[in-house]
Amino acid sequence: MQPAERSSSTDTSRAELVDEARTLESAIDVDPADVRRRAGRVVAQARRSDVPEALVWGLRTIAVLDRLEGDPAAAVALLDDALAVARRAGLPTLCAWVLASRSVTQLELGRTARARSDAAAALAVVDEHRARDAALDDLHARIQLQLAVMDHNAGRLVEAEARYRAVAREVEPGDPNFVRAANNLALVLVARTAYGEALRWAELAVDGATRLGPALRSWPYLTRALIEVQTGRLGDGLRDLERAARASEEAGQSPGEYYVEYAETMRELRLLPEAAAAGRRALEELVAAGGGLVEVDARISLAETLLLLGDAVGAAQQAQTARVRARAQRRPGAHDRAVLVAVRARVRAGDAGPADLAAVRRAAARLQRAGELGPAADAHLEGGRLAAALAMPRRAERHLVAAAALARRGPLSVRLRGRLAAALSGRLGGADDDVLRQCRAGLRDLARHRQALPTMELQALASGHGAQLGELGLEVMVRRGAPAAVLRWMEQTRAAALQARLPVAAPEPEGAQVASRAGAQASSPVGPDATGDRRAVRRSVIVADDELEADARRSAWLEDTADRVPTAGRVPSLATVRAALAGRVLVEYGRHGDRFVAVVVDGARARVVDLGPTAGEVADALHALVFALRRMVDPSSAAAADAARASADLRLVRLRAVLLEPLDLPPDAELVVVPVGVLHGAPWSALHDGPVALAPSAAAWLRTRERPAAPAGPVVLVAGPDLRGAQDEVEALRALHPGVRVLGAHDSHADAVVAAVADADLAHLACHGTLRSDNPMFSAVVLADGPVTVQELHRSGVAPRRLVLASCHSGADVAYEGDEVLGLVSAMLSRGTAGVVASIAAVPDVEVVDLMLALHRRLAAGQTMARALHGARGEIDRDIPAGFVNWCTFSAHGAA
């Protein structure tokens, strides 16, 4: 009896071991670390007790964990071992499970052919045994899902969609396979631009995943975020990205795929430096995890971002690597997308030829056959442009017509490229009416999208999607020659973000702090007196950390914007502009291609002046001028100062000759100048002998005329810390104004300054300024408790009627594609400030005091900012370097 009892006990323990091994995988999503410990114990015991079934399940579980944790090569080795054990033991259904898992892992390694072979072999076994083993139903769904993924990655979207739908019908909504199928089906539908249905499937995937572990939960959040961002629901999309990041971190997964999706989102929003940083981070993570399919996608994504940033060399390198690896992985869709980016990079470098056109044509055809409509439209658009440049109009027309047709139902960026393709087609055929119709339709679509965005920064960046449409339309309008029509077109395509009515940020709870980057000292929290003031600035602990700056930006994007009033751009008529000028002359500049054009409006007439292909010459002159001015602020010697002055004079003469002399203006005329692009950085006061006021658009200048002077508005003078002469400056200015309030260098804390200047009739800030040309909303003025960024000031709603910024670079707003401008001056004007004086460059600290005294004497006498600055500049001794710099760099903005 004793031996039989031992045998029975042994059989029971073997069965228990097999049962435990079979259930290991189901707990991976809940506690992967515990599953790994248990699986290791099962494998060891199965080897000792010679239980092959338990050994196979245990090895397979560890392999799944290795794959999920970013080591697919180790997973394949374990699965090879498991498959050999299963075959020796004659366990065909276990062979199918292992083959299915190895197929997934081979695919992650980019071994597409091996992955498909394993999946087909597994499916054959399942089909043979499924009728006798209901447990194989789950495996059948998994394999079908895996085959769908392979179809998806190969660009066979029709086949992939059919398989995903079949799996979704086959399993219950709470099943992990349903979540995967619903998530991937949503991605296929996005590629087909069926956003409504895509969002419904993404919602089903999210709902199912919330009941599962974090390892599966992050992907549906990423997919839903992609759809939300592409359909204009920015806040929802960013929240889902954060949820995906948390779930990925909880699951211990490599964050590579999260960063790929985040980079895609940032690029869609035109936040290109952020997209590039996230793309590089994604690539680092994915390469460290073993590369594979997603690495190729990450390289293509990064190449597209680098191309938008103007780095054609870097884009070509990434695209070429992705092309080679996609071919090795037998992924024609990824290969063709990489080819497309590589050709764009060669076009940018001026090296593209007929061979590139042939490559684009082949890629476009394959992408279109595969159902990848967005990439196919891009390929046809690029083919059309390249064919036109190579003097092949018929080929160009075929490509452009195909691009326009494919892009009709895409996301905003794709639809706009479709409009661009149709406009270019019209241009080829000399059909100006068709060009304008497509440009107008695209810009209207862009305007609706822009109004849904929650910050001025995002709205300004979004305008870049329509930059080429604006230039094409302007080209037609200039050719037609009607000044009113040219002016109207320019006004439709510039400074639209400044017209949004964005909400004033509510104050932080007492002691709350938001991170900011610009500075090196810690600031105090908001005091009790700020809690009832909606204009309270969100103060910050100052740290050198780019992640904190990104957090501060996202906090603005995620704010509730329900109280924001979308406003259509108000385009003033020529008669309205002429009446408001009251003797002034409006000069509004535009650009199409490399040509500048100006509309000149005075009391008698309006005219269009083509300034010719001078864009490159102007940019070079401005760069050299700014360099010379910087040298003159602190020259190393008298000889260096003289050389810099000679260089500056030469550039000023050339800029006058190109930008103003062809306009044939009276030398003493008072100008309202609306620059475009690089011309925002020109020293306009030094280019014209009469008073000059700048504005982002004619409409923006008209709005500054609408704010009346406050009957008893205070004058506020603020001195910043560590600035030579700042305290003396505000003390000297105090005597010029009655009822003035002075905040000295030790008292100029941010909240006190904001509260004082918010409703001031005139505010003067004598403090250090820091320029962030890469991120102008994080340029800052330095106060007693640290820097206050443009973003903080804008969100606080600060808007004195007139503002003098005696700070370095305070007027150096940054121009973006789409004729938008961001910076401290534009932020103040958008909030309602009617007049600003600021400098486009560094200013001498002490010598600027005399200019400010002369300016304020005239302001106190009731002159406008433009006339007061003009008179004050006339008192400057331009023979000394510091005097010349001050004479050259300060400009007035607005009508006050």
TrEMBL record:
<dbReference type="InterPro" id="IPR024983">
    <property type="entry name" value="CHAT_dom"/>
</dbReference>
<dbReference type="InterPro" id="IPR011990">
    <property type="entry name" value="TPR-like_helical_dom_sf"/>
</dbReference>
<feature type="domain" description="CHAT">
    <location>
        <begin position="655"/>
        <end position="878"/>
    </location>
</feature>
<dbReference type="Pfam" id="PF12770">
    <property type="entry name" value="CHAT"/>
</dbReference>
<protein>
    <recommendedName>
        <fullName>CHAT domain-containing protein</fullName>
    </recommendedName>
</protein>
<feature type="region of interest" description="Disordered">
    <location>
        <begin position="508"/>
        <end position="534"/>
    </location>
</feature>
